[in-house]
Specification:
heterodimer; A: 251 residues; alpha/beta; Rossmann fold; six-stranded mixed β-sheet; 12 strands; globular; B: 481 residues; eleven-stranded mixed β-sheet; ten-stranded mixed β-sheet; 12 helices
Chain lengths: 251, 481
C-alpha cells in the first residue's frame, strides 16, 4: 500500500528526515516510536503534505501513485487520513457540517454523487455508535472548547466517516487519561480491516497495549534505526531509548 | 510564493460577477448640481410644491455643510459638479403592468437572478426594482394591497399617499442630518416606500433591488418604511453595479419608523462594484440608515452583509425612544484588495428599559482597511437600559488593517453595558486541517469565514442567507497569506 524509499526532508534549513525506508501493507498496523525530536511527527506531516516541510530526496508510493506529487487535499481524497496531535478549532463550523463538506468533496473526486441529507445522517449515526461519540458534541463548533479526550474522539469519528485506506495517528495518546485512551483505541480497532492500514506515531508504549501493532519501528535522528514486532515496544518501555541511541551511534 | 498566496492572487483577479452593462436608452440631467437641477428633478417627477420646497431647503443647507473627514478612509476629493444627478431608463409610457415594462429591463434583472415576473417567483418575495435613479417595477402589489400594505416606488407614494410621505419623510433622518443625507434630500430620485397598517404581519419578504447602470451618474435613492402599531415586516435590499474605471457616488437614505409594538427587520446584501484589484473604480457608498423605535415595545433590527463598494461609510442606527423598545445590529463587512470600510452602528437609548445588541464581524483581506465605528448612548431618562456589543475582526494576510472605534456615553447609572472584542487570523493550521480532510482551499476559506460570520448570517431570511454565503465565499476565497 505504502512504500517509502530514502525519504529525506527539511524544515527551513534544518534537515529532519535522513532517509526513511518503510513498507506498509494493507491489513497491517505499524508503530513509529522514538525519542523526542527524532522526526516521528515530521514523517506524518510529510506524508500528509504539510507545506512547511520540503522533501529533499526519496520517493513515496501510495497505491501506485507518487504521493509526493499530490496536493494535501488529493492525498486525503486518495485515502490518507491524519488524526492530529493538536486538532485545531474552527469556530461556527460544526463537525457535522465539516464532515459533510469533506465527504462530498472526496466523493466528487472519486466521481461519486454527493450524499443526500438522509443517507448522510444515516452514515453519521452508524459511525457515532461505532466510536461512542455523542451527537451533541458533533453539533458544536469543531473542537471549540472540547476537552483533550473529546478532540481525539472527534478525530477518530472523522476517520470512521471518511473510511481512509491509510490512517496516520499522530501522538493520539497525548493528553488522554486511561479511559479516553481505551475509547479512542477501541474506535481505531473497530475500524481496522484487511483493506486498510494504520501507522501509529507515539512516544510511549501504552497506546500499543490497546492498538496492537504488527511492526514497531524506532526512529532516531531521522532514520529508522531498528524494526521489530510489538516486543520491541515493550523493550523500549523497559529500557528507555538510550540503548537505541548508543547502538545507532556505534553503527 | 506559497500556495495560499497563489490562490489569493487567482481569486482577487477574478472579475466582479455583475460587471456588465446593458444598453438602455436613458434620459439624463446635465452634469452638475445647482438649484435648477433640483427643480429639474422635481419637475421630471411631477412633484407637488411642498416637496420641491423641501428639496430646495435641503440643497441650501447642503451648500453650507462640509464633507465629513472623520471616517477612517481616504479618497480623492469628489467633484460634485462632475456628477449626473438624474438618469432614468426611457420608457415610452408609464407601465401599468409588468407586461408593459421594457423587456430589456426585465432581462437586466433576470441576469441578476431576479425575476420580475410574478408567476415565476416561488420564493414569496415582493420586489421593487430600481435602476439608475428610477423604480421600474414593483411586484405583488395587488396581493399586498388586499392587506392594506402599501409597497411602491417613492415617486408613486408621493402621488398616491402624499399625507403619509409628508408626515414621515425626514422624521427619522432630518434633511440636514449630515452632508450626504442633505445631498440626498436635495436630489433623491426614487426609492421604495412601504407602509404596514396596524396589526398586519406582512406575509412575504419585501425587497428592493438597486442597480446602477448609467456611467457618471450618482445614485440617490430614498427608502421609507413605516410600521404602524403591532405590525411586522421583513425587508431586504440588494444592489450591484457595472465595472467602471471611475468612482460612482451612491448616497442613499433609509428611514424606518416603528410605532407601538411594531417590528421592522431590515436586511442588506450590499454588492456594489468594489473597484478592480488595483483599487481603480468602484462605488463610493455613503449611506445614512436610521430607524426610530417611536412606540413602546417596538423593535428594529438591521442585518447587513457588506461585500462591495470601494468605500463604505454607513452606520445603520436605532433611536430607541419608546419604552421597552429594542434595537439590533448584525453586520458582516468584508473588504479585499483596496476596499475601505468604515461602518458600524449607533444605538441611542432614550426610553426606559430599552435594549440593544450589536454583533459586528469584520473581515479584511488584501490591502484593505476595515473599521468598526459604533456608538452606544444611554440618555438620562433611559433607566435600566441594556446594551451588549460584540466586535470581532478576522484578518487574512498581513497587508490589511482592522480597526475598532467604540464610543460609549452613559448618562444614567442604571445602565448595563457590555463590550467584547476579538481579533483573529485565519491560520495555516485551520486551512491545513481542512485540506487534510479532502476539502480544497477555496472551500476551506468559505467554510471558515461562514463559520465566523454565522451569527450574523443566521439573521438573514433563508433565500438571502444562501446568497450571502456564496457572496462571502466569492469575495474571499483563498485570501489567506
Amino acid at each position: 500500500m505504502l512504500s517509502i524509499k530514502n525519504l529525506q526532508a527539511k524544515i527551513g534549513e534544518k534537515q529532519i528526515l535522513n532517509g526513511i525506508d518503510l513498507k506498509v501493507n494493507a491489513g497491517e498496523v505499524h508503530a513509529i516510536m522514538g525519542p523526542n525530536g527524532s522526526g516521528k511527527s515530521t514523517l506524518a506531516s510529510v506524508l500528509s503534505g504539510r507545506e512547511e516541510y520540503e522533501v529533499t530526496d526519496g520517493e513515496v508510493d501510495f497505491l501506485g501513485k507518487d504521493l509526493l506529487e499530490l496536493s494535501p487535499e488529493d492525498r486525503a481524497r486518495e485515502g490518507i487520513f491524519m488524526a492530529f496531535q493538536y486538532p485545531v478549532e474552527i469556530p461556527g463550523v460544526s463537525t457535522i457540517n465539516f464532515m459533510k463538506t469533506a465527504l462530498n468533496q472526496i466523493r466528487e473526486y472519486r466521481g461519486q454523487q454527493a450524499l443526500d441529507a438522509v443517507s448522510f445522517l444515516q452514515l453519521m449515526k452508524e459511525k457515532m455508535k461505532l466510536v461512542e461519540i455523542d451527537q451533541s458534541l458533533l453539533n458544536r463548533s469543531l473542537n471549540e472548547g472540547f476537552s483533550g479526550g473529546e478532540k481525539k474522539r472527534n478525530e477518530i469519528f472523522q476517520m470512521a466517516m471518511l473510511e481512509p485506506k491509510l490512517a496516520l495517528l499522530d501522538e493520539t495518546d497525548s493528553g488522554l487519561d486511561i479511559d479516553a485512551l481505551r475509547i479512542v483505541a477501541n474506535g481505531v480497532n473497530k475500524l481496522r480491516n484487511k483493506n486498510n492500514a494504520v501507522v501509529v506515531v507515539t512516544h510511549y508504549q501504552r497506546l500499543l497495549d490497546y492498538i496492537v501493532p504488527d511492526y514497531v519501528h524506532v526512529l532516531y535522528k531521522g532514520k529508522i534505526v531498528k524494526s521489530g514486532t510489538k516486543e520491541l515496544a515493550l523493550e523500549l518501555e523497559a529500557k528507555g531509548y538510550d540503548w537505541i541511541k548508543s547502538e545507532a551511534t556505534v553503527a | 510564493m506559497s500556495k495560499s498566496n497563489q490562490v489569493l492572487e487567482e481569486i482577487t483577479s477574478k472579475e466582479y460577477e455583475h460587471g456588465w452593462t446593458v444598453n438602455l436608452e436613458t434620459e439624463e440631467a446635465p452634469k452638475g448640481l445647482n438649484e435648477d437641477i433640483v427643480r429639474f428633478i422635481s419637475s421630471k417627477k411631477n412633484e407637488p410644491e411642498w416637496l420641491l420646497e423641501w428639496r430646495l431647503k435641503a440643497f441650501r443647507q447642503w451648500q453650507k455643510m462640509v464633507e465629513p473627514k472623520w471616517p477612517n478612509v481616504t479618497y480623492p476629493a469628489i467633484n460634485y459638479q462632475d456628477i449626473i444627478y438624474y438618469s432614468a431608463p426611457k420608457q415610452k409610457v408609464k407601465p401599468n403592468s409588468l407586461d408593459e415594462v421594457d423587456p430589456e429591463l426585465i432581462k437586466t434583472f433576470e441576469k441578476l437572478g431576479i425575476s420580475l415576473t410574478e408567476q415565476k417567483r416561488l420564493t414569496g418575495v415582493a420586489v421593487d426594482a430600481v435602476i439608475d435613479s428610477v423604480s421600474v417595477a414593483t411586484t405583488f402589489k395587488e396581493k399586498l394591497s388586499e392587506l392594506g400594505i402599501i409597497f411602491c416606488s417613492f415617486s408613486e407614494a408621493v402621488k398616491e399617499h402624499p399625507e403619509l410621505v409628508k408626515k414621515y419623510l425626514g422624521s427619522v433622518v432630518p434633511m440636514n442630518d449630515n452632508y450626504f443625507a442633505a445631498l440626498n434630500s436635495a436630489v433623491f430620485s426614487d426609492g421604495s416606500f412601504c407602509y404596514i397598517p396596524k396589526g398586519v404581519r406582512c406575509p412575504m419578504e419585501l425587497s428592493t433591488y438597486f442597480r446602477i447602470n448609467a456611467a457618471n451618474t450618482g445614485q440617490f435613492e430614498r427608502t421609507l418604511i413605516v410600521a404602524d402599531e403591532g405590525s411586522y415586516v421583513s425587508y431586504l435590499e440588494g444592489c450591484t453595479a457595472p465595472m467602471r474605471d471611475e468612482n460612482q457616488l451612491h448616497a442613499a437614505v433609509v428611514e424606518l419608523y416603528t410605532m407601538k409594538g411594531a417590528e421592522i427587520k431590515y436586511s442588506t446584501v450590499q454588492n456594489w462594484y468594489p473597484g478592480d484589484k488595483n483599487g481603480k473604480g468602484g462605488i463610493y457608498n455613503f449611506v445614512t440608515k436610521r430607524g426610530l423605535c417611536a412606540g413602546d415595545h417596538s423593535k428594529i433590527s438591521w442585518t447587513q452583509v457588506e461585500t462591495g463598494s470601494a468605500i463604505t461609510w454607513k452606520y445603520p442606527s436605532c433611536v430607541l425612544k419608546g419604552d421597552y423598545s429594542v434595537g439590533e445590529f448584525y453586520s458582516v463587512a468584508v473588504t479585499n484588495n483596496y476596499q475601505q470600510a468604515d461602518t458600524g452602528t449607533k444605538m441611542i437609548h432614550i426610553g426606559k428599559n430599552t435594549r440593544s445588541r450589536i454583533v459586528s464581524k469584520g473581515i479584511s483581506a488584501g490591502k484593505s482597511q476595515n473599521s468598526y465605528r459604533g456608538q452606544v448612548h444611554i440618555m438620562k431618562r433611559a433607566a435600566n437600559a441594556r446594551n451588549h456589543s460584540q466586535c470581532d475582526s478576522l484578518l487574512m494576510g498581513d497587508q490589511c488593517g482592522a480597526h475598532t472605534f467604540p464610543y460609549i456615553d452613559v448618562e444614567n447609572n442604571s445602565a448595563r453595558i457590555e463590550h467584547e472584542a476579538t481579533t483573529s487570523k485565519i491560520g495555516e493550521d485551520q486551512i491545513f486541517y481542512c485540506l487534510q480532510r479532502g476539502i480544497d482551499e477555496e472551500a476551506a476559506v468559505a467554510l471558515i469565514v461562514n463559520g465566523y460570520a454565522k451569527e450574523v448570517l443566521n439573521q438573514l431570511p433563508m433565500e438571502f442567507a444562501v446568497e450571502a454565503q456564496k457572496l462571502l465565499a466569492l469575495t474571499l476565497e483563498g485570501s489567506v497569506g
